[in-house]
Predict the 3D structure of the following.
Amino acid sequence: MPESDGSRTALVVLGVHRSGTSALARALAFCGYALPTDLMAPHGDNPKGFWEPVGVVQLNEKILAALGATWDRPGPFLLPALDLPTSNERISAAIARKWLPDAVEALRHSYGTSGAIMLKDPRIALFLPLWRAALAEAGYTPRFILVYRNPLEVAASLRARNRLALRSSLLLWQSYNLPALELEISGALGAIVSYERLLEDPLDALKRLFEQLRIGIEPLGPDTSAALREFIAPQDCHHIASTEELSQTPFCARQVLDAWDLLENWSAWSPGRRNAAIARLRKGFDEAVLFAGSPKVIGRQQQVALGEEFDARPAVVRGRSTRLAVAYDAKNCPLVLHYHLFKNAGTSVDEILVRNFGPLWATEEFPPCGIKSNVAAVEAYLRGRPDLLALSSHTALLPVPDLGGRKVIPVVFIRHPIDRLKSAYEFERRQGADTFGSRLAKESDFGGYVRGLLASPGNRQARNFQAHRLAFNEPPEAGSEEERAMRTLKTLPFVGLVEVFDKSVERMSYLLTPYFSQFELATVRKNITRRKTGSVEERQSEIRSEIGTGLYDELIAANDLDLQIFSAVSADYAVASRSV
């Protein structure tokens, strides 16, 4: 069994189909990692099963279908007039925005309250930003493991089982393995495992795996050893190519051979050499698929399915292009870090950053670290992306990362906590996700929604959410949550207020213009759930009448710190406000 450190850990098994992911998943289950309750049934030449949660697989297939793709034709996806990296970032962000609640619910349905879990579905590699955010939202710290296998063995197996041609199989091998390898650049790839070595000596392979992950585990006894060997014996696994079959696939592209060489020599190469090789592989792969004409173009139908319209042309504000990629060298400029708090006008802020920074803006999500900040993971990601001028994240936590002397400008917006909760309720009523929150919103009035959230242990969405996030700027031992949050307000160079959004973005532009002389102020409204009417006080009066004085007072008490923060920021913007 894995040694418990009080955390919820998810070992996420990645790798292309037919590469041994099922065997490793089963081995991890033997080691005590919880399996999903909705496990897929065995089939065909996987007599021991696929070890995949049905809910996760179904959601990934649903996303692929919405994009006009399938598991064996998974993209990459291209927006007209944009390059593949920019297209990938924008489409990935759209997927995360639309399907994050569904992904969180799929995890909760499959694993319940289990602690250390094993999660496996090759398609997860196609939508890593979504699943990283979902695992973080569900309270898990993900540890990603890549299982790799000789590409010609994989091709032979896919030909035997799925009738795929060699070229298609090698493209798949790259499409699934490259995103997993790119986790290494941000420091998120925990370990790699050779399928061939797992077959040769499963116990030694597992020992090395847990050493890479720095996870302690109880010694495996003889009974477990025998069961493991029985399960992953070659004659009991999926198709193993014969020498004759391999001789029929003599050609393997240089791009694939280079990736195979990287995997085989992983431990012997320095992190810098590995990262450089991964960057070359990505560039070569993108050039190859563009030349071959194989990317999936995201047209109007797919954009409707994603719930977004993409303007693939260079962003234009005040009649001219404002892509700062042309004007600035990221290495000599500050980095704008937008801490995107849910329902705090974050999508509108992102649109302003996109219009100004274009391909030098990105989104990324990070795992939680219990009561500690995940700033180390944020720092590792940004050190691996020195090209960026701006980053937005729902899950990045204060304090700002140390980028070795490069200035980081944090951007945070605050909102009246009860208004924010009302907006979240109306958003969840309208979205198509089948999550706890959306079901609660659809089945209840706002009062029932509030009661359900307040009755959910550990859920901060209805309890001083903004204070909780601000307090991460200082370690827990530095004081109470109130003390740390209020000090943070005084130290941040900019705090926006949703209630005066236009004035806030004007102030934000004053902050950024000295560093980015071409930064253009543009007021946009994106992902707005409801149109606000009346003053803050009038809306609060309406909500009090709607849910009743008793529940309203309970909600006010649960958000006392957020109300203090709102009052302080409102006073700074000279907004007329009074205590509620």
